[in-house]
Design brief:
This protein is an all-alpha fold and about 375 residues long. Helix content is about 55%, strand content about 5%. It is built from 16 helices and 3 strands. Strand 2 (about 30-35) and strand 3 form a beta hairpin. The protein binds acetyl coenzyme *A. Acetyl coenzyme *A binds near residues 250 and 312.
Length: about 375
């Protein structure tokens, strides 16, 4: 029988496997992705470079990146069955539509081929659904564009400025992998059963959707916008946030299971957002977000002393993606597009070295009941 005191609710602090993909140091506030600090990798690498870094364990040569770009471009196809699903789910939440469209992909039986297919397809599905829900026709991918540029193209129908492409690449690389977070763990559990990579990614999308994981940035932006941009609104932050806390709500974009200091990804994305808003010549929203953040941290420390609730990745995700022209319903699908790099890399790693993931549970139900 399992001693109740040995149970780790939520598997907190349990080390379930070795990984060479990323290390999350929650006490130092450091994230290492395949040897590179997130502050070093995210502003400089493209999504394709980060993907190859995770898949192969080393910095890719330019020729390998060009070959991967071509492989992804060849797989960016909106097949009729996926389009039909997206059309039928036009009004559905974007993550439901993304999960369903990803479910139309068939496994080839080859992990790398499946990984290429699903990584290439997620932006196609997410962009098509977003356009369909706005009453617009999906836009054909442009094979000459990289992953981030093509995503912006398919979403907005405008060839993007290189600074915006850089902003999106920085976002996608920042979130590409993060230890054994819930969706990555889900992908590994599915792979560990001998199932295929498409199934692993579909399951991971389901895990990412939840507000305690990838569903937070939309509500985080809503909170900033609720405070409002008018003169004097930073002072309103105190009233808006206090009302939420008094209603028993959590402040979205704050707190983390592992980070007990500031999430390093918040700074990377905050800097990218600041650069983008400065370039566009309007930093009011950025300044307001900083003020809301400072108020939230003060209130959380006062109400939950010693809990060390700090800003997490989602707060500045919201700001950066808003600046890139995405609405708040699109934030989590775009997170999924970035995290698909880590999901697939972890599935490879799990397949190569992992055991079936099958923890135990302590039974607390009744015994010996009779049916007849
Ligand atoms: N606002 C208010 N209170 C909070 C918050 C928050 N954002 N986060 C935690 N708390 C409180 C909890 O109510 C709890 O208080 P209690 O013990 O008095 O009831 C205490 O702090 C500890 O919370 P736990 O739920 O035990 O912390 P856990 O490690 O399970 O949760 C989580 C981490 C889920 C991220 C939590 O901080 C949260 O809900 N944050 C808001 C949602 C969010 O931003 N999610 C994105 C996370 S980042 C990512 O997944 C990519």
């Amino acid at each position: 029988m399992t001693a109740i005191e040995t149970i780790k609710e939520g598997l907190e602090g349990v080390v379930a496997a070795r990984t060479a993909l990323s290390r999350v140091d929650g006490e130092r506030g450091a994230l290492t992705i395949a040897g590179y600090a997130v502050e070093e990798l995210a502003p400089n690498a493209t999504f394709e470079e980060a993907l190859l870094l995770l898949w192969t364990g080393r910095r890719p040569e330019p020729g390998a990146v060009a070959a991967l770009r071509a492989e992804l471009a060849a797989r960016r196809v909106l097949r009729p069955e996926a389009r039909a699903v997206l059309e039928s789910l036009r009004e559905a939440p974007p993550m439901d539509a993304l999960r369903a469209a990803a479910g139309t992909l068939r496994s080839t039986g080859d992990d790398r081929e499946d990984a290429l297919n699903v990584v290439a397809a997620l932006p196609v599905f997410a962009a098509a659904h977003d356009r369909l829900r706005r009453g617009l026709a999906p836009i054909e991918p442009d094979p000459a564009l990289g992953h981030a540029a093509n995503l912006l193209w398919m979403w907005h129908g405008v060839l993007p400025d290189p600074a915006l492409v850089r902003g999106l690449d920085t976002y996608l690389v920042t979130v590409c992998d993060h230890g054994f977070n819930a969706s990555t763990f889900t992908a590994r559990v599915v792979t560990s059963t001998g199932s295929d990579l498409i199934s692993a990614v579909v399951a991971a999308i389901g895990a990412l959707k939840g507000p305690l994981h990838g569903g937070a940035p939309g509500p985080a932006l809503d909170t900033v916008l609720e405070v409002g941009l008018e003169i004097g609104s930073p002072e309103r932050a105190e009233a808006v946030l206090t009302a939420k806390l008094e209603a028993g709500e959590r402040l979205m974009g704050f707190g983390h299971r592992v980070y007990k200091v500031r999430d390093p990804r918040a700074d990377v994305l905050g800097a990218a957002a600041e650069a983008m808003f400065s370039r566009a010549g309007d930093t009011r929203l950025y300044a307001l977000a900083r003020a809301v953040e400072a108020t939230a941290l003060r209130l959380l420390e006062a109400r939950k002393p010693g809990r060390r609730l700090q800003t997490n990745v989602e707060f500045y995700t919201a700001l950066l993606l808003h600046g890139l022209g995405f609405d708040s319903g699109s934030f989590t699908p775009i997170f999924a597009i970035g995290r698909s790099a880590g999901w697939t890399a972890h599935a490879f790693e799990q397949r190569a070295k992992g055991r079936l993931i099958r923890p135990s549970s302590a039974y607390t139900g009744a015994e010996g009941l009779t049916w007849s």
